[in-house]
Amino acid sequence: MKTPMIALFLIAFQQILLGSEAYTKVPALYIFGDSQADCGNENLIDDNEDKSMYDPYGKNFPYGPTGRYSDGDLITDQIGYYLDVQASTPFVHDEVKFKANKRDGYNFAFASAGILDETGSTIIELFKNSISEYLNRTFHNSSTALSENLSESLFVVLVGSNDYVFNYLDPLQNSTKHYTPKRLARVLASRLANFLEELYTLGGRKFFMFEVGPLGCYPLVIDMVRPESVCAKDINEMVQYFNTQLGDAVAQLNYRFQDATFYLIQIYDFLFKLVQHPVKYGLREIRVPCCPTTTTKNSMGLCAAHGVPCSSSKLHMFWDKYHLGSHINKLIAEKACKDSGFCRRPADFDFLSATSLLRPRYIEGTKRISKPFRRGLNFYCM
């Protein structure tokens, strides 16, 4: 999936009060990422071939096909519901409306986005322009009001999968072949940290940074590498290298910028548990997607246009060969907003030597919250 590069971020904010729960209202949601978060931007690019503006995409979404690579809600849609913030609309589609009192955020995610330049073109400049050209007008050129809005908003970032699947693992791509898996993980995490720092410089203070899931268990990747086991172990190891480096990078950001909060949303282990114990989560199929997929070259594992999907999407982990079903997206969003064992704030460092790398000591969460979830961010992290 090639096109823009979204170095990016789903930034959700939660304040931590030691030993107590924090319920926080956010005024806006700014979303950055790839097809996991794209609500229609990619579809609005005239020269893009990998669109999802057709049935059966949107089968379980109130408005049908909208450019979302899902049967229904995305993870970011569900986070918006939990935070009682209107689901962010695609920036490409809504540029005119952006000029007229649009204060509840925007979606800057593109399906083809990645961290590397080779994966797509950067979207940070687009966000910079939106601040200077549109948001300043929305807040009547009041730098104080704009700064307050951005600092209290949640920035969500879901990105990195494309850099592996459509770059490093693609035999036709040569730009990253000279990297070892561990070296690539460091490069990706470093570049992503730089993007997060740019968002901080632009005013963001509350961030949700998502790990990359176990790509070695995704149907599209399984088709590519043909593993002997349920998942491609070597691919998952690559992803784990990256997630570890990302945790280190997020910890350093928390250390450097004391007035900001960077959360790491740990989806890898959760999704791997679904693969290992599908019945426990009400799943019957972890390899076969719900919708029939295209078989043409470079199909990217997308649903075949107007194909007839399975009768019960909730029994399948994947909607197409690369994207999770909306019921899984809902579980992820719920855990991100409620479960302290899922949402971590990497912090605290042990300085082993003056030249040592900063190594985060992950803060263990307390027991899971069992009381009913209320609107707003509900965290019990310690």
From TrEMBL:
InterPro entries: GDSL, GDSL_esterase/lipase, SGNH_hydro_sf. It is found in: Secreted. Its main location: secreted. It comes from the Eukaryota. Pfam families: Lipase_GDSL. GO terms for cellular component: extracellular region. Keywords: Hydrolase, Lipid degradation, Lipid metabolism, Secreted, Signal. GO terms for molecular function: hydrolase activity, acting on ester bonds. Residues 1-22 form the signal peptide. One of its GO terms (biological process) is lipid catabolic process. Belongs to the 'GDSL' lipolytic enzyme family. This is GDSL lipase/esterase.
